[in-house]
């Protein structure tokens, strides 16, 4: 049994991770900025400070932790409102992460699991699945901040002996999902025609409970120390396959139009959305062989099971 502190415990992934850690017999404390309903059997530490500025001084005297799983972050947003997005991402995702890791080390924590993103590496693969040791080329402020945090944590680990574990998921889906995945579900549910029928590029996804299971292994398995892992479902779907699968589980067949990729790219250029279209039509598959080889990890749920659970949640809210 391990004692694990989860930052961002009341978020989408955080709630799933706290459940998974608890069910595996670990002692779990959630670090959150404001009090909210929490998972049964999970203790709570409320620290309202911005970017973990008060974490070190406010560490509860009785709290003993073996591992911190750091989920809290300024996430990738579609409609950016910060005057300087680069600085905003750096402040939270780099400086805040380092404050959290240093506080953990000072209070005797042995391991720090950093949930990064595949965006710290790239937005598209080069014709083969992306490996952990490929050359990084992040394309936006979010991805650059995650990459900078990875590098800073590795240096901190070398200086202090803190065990650093880096996990890079792709898009995460599951019950309570938001952002682009929810938008796709809304469109399928409403019968909106989607110009996605001709797209053949495949993109890795990860079901939230698969990611949570992998993070439990990263937090508790001695073999994970000083490792970096890509985590994804076993299947990488095309966007058309994803839409059809969602439609099947929602009971609302997806209406897909076979619009050529070249037309979509042209529309992206004309509307100033080239980056968004590139992500839509480009391939991004992850090589997950390292976590399977090093930790013996296998995704406990298939993509079909994950999509079915997500669709069941969606139907229950509509």
From TrEMBL:
Domain of life: Bacteria
Protein name listed in UniProt: SDR family oxidoreductase
Lineage: Bacteria, Pseudomonadati, Pseudomonadota, Betaproteobacteria, Burkholderiales
Spans annotated as Disordered: 125-144
UniProt cross-references to PANTHER family, sorted A to Z: BIFUNCTIONAL POLYMYXIN RESISTANCE PROTEIN ARNA, BLL5923 PROTEIN
InterPro entries: Epimerase_deHydtase, Lipid_A_modif_metabolic_enz, NAD(P)-bd_dom_sf
Residues in NAD-dependent epimerase/dehydratase domain copies: 4-225
CDD domains attached to this UniProt entry: UDP_G4E_4_SDR_e
């Amino acid at each position: 049994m391990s004692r694990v502190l989860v930052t961002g415990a009341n978020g989408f992934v955080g709630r799933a991770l706290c459940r998974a850690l608890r069910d595996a017999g670990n002692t779990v404390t959630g670090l959150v900025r404001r009090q909210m309903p929490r998972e049964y059997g999970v203790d709570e530490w409320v620290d309202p400070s911005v970017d973990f500025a008060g974490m070190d001084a406010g560490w509860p005297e009785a709290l003993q932790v073996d591992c911190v799983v750091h989920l809290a972050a300024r996430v990738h947003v579609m409609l950016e409102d910060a005057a300087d997005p680069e600085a905003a991402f750096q402040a939270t995702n780099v400086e805040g992460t380092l404050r959290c890791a240093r506080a953990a080390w000072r209070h005797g924590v042995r391991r720090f699991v950093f949930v990064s993103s595949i965006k710290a590496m790239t937005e598209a693969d080069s014709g083969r699945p992306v490996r952990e040791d490929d050359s990084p080329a992040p394309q936006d402020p979010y991805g650059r901040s995650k990459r900078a945090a990875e590098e800073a944590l590795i240096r901190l680990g070398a200086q202090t002996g803190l065990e650093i574990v880096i996990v890079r998921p792709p898009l995460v889906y599951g019950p309570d999902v938001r952002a682009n995945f929810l938008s796709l579900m809304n469109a399928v549910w409403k019968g909106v025609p989607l110009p996605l029928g001709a797209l053949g590029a495949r993109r890795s996804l990860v079901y939230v409970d698969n990611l949570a299971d992998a993070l439990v292994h990263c937090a508790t398995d001695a073999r994970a120390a000083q490792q970096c892992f890509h985590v994804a479902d076993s299947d990488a779907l095309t966007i058309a396959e994803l839409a059809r699968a969602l439609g099947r589980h929602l009971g609302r067949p997806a209406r897909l139009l076979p619009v050529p990729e070249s037309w979509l790219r042209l529309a992206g250029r004309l509307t100033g959305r080239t980056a968004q279209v590139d992500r839509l039509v480009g391939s991004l598959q992850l090589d997950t062989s390292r976590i399977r080889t090093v930790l013996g990890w296998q995704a406990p749920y298939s993509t079909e099971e994950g999509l079915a659970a997500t669709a069941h949640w969606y139907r229950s809210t509509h």
